[in-house]
Fold this protein.
Amino acid sequence: MTIAKGFVITFASGLLCAAGGGALGYALAVLSPAYYRGVFQAGRAPGFDPVAVGLGLGISQGLIAGLLVGAVVVLAVAWCNSRRDSPERDLVQRSRPAPSSSEAFYRRRRPDR
């Protein structure tokens, strides 16, 4: 995996989760505006806008969650690729003797189905 691909995965994950979080926050504010009014002490003030609060919290929390998920995915793929291409594994495979022709001939083969 290239560095650019890692950044793209992390960025795309952040954007998708921010959009999802914003949609959830907006839906919660529209369907149940009393939730945000009860959670925040300033919710009783006349200028309090639960839709703006829900949208803002949803986008920011979704972005943070998406960036974390993207980073974990990139790290997992990089770790998996590093284990697959490790020089130690190549050394172990090269140190094994090649099977002789008789071993290859008598090796049990799976029947075709």
Notes: The first helix runs from residue 3 to 31. The two ends are 37 Å apart (CA to CA).
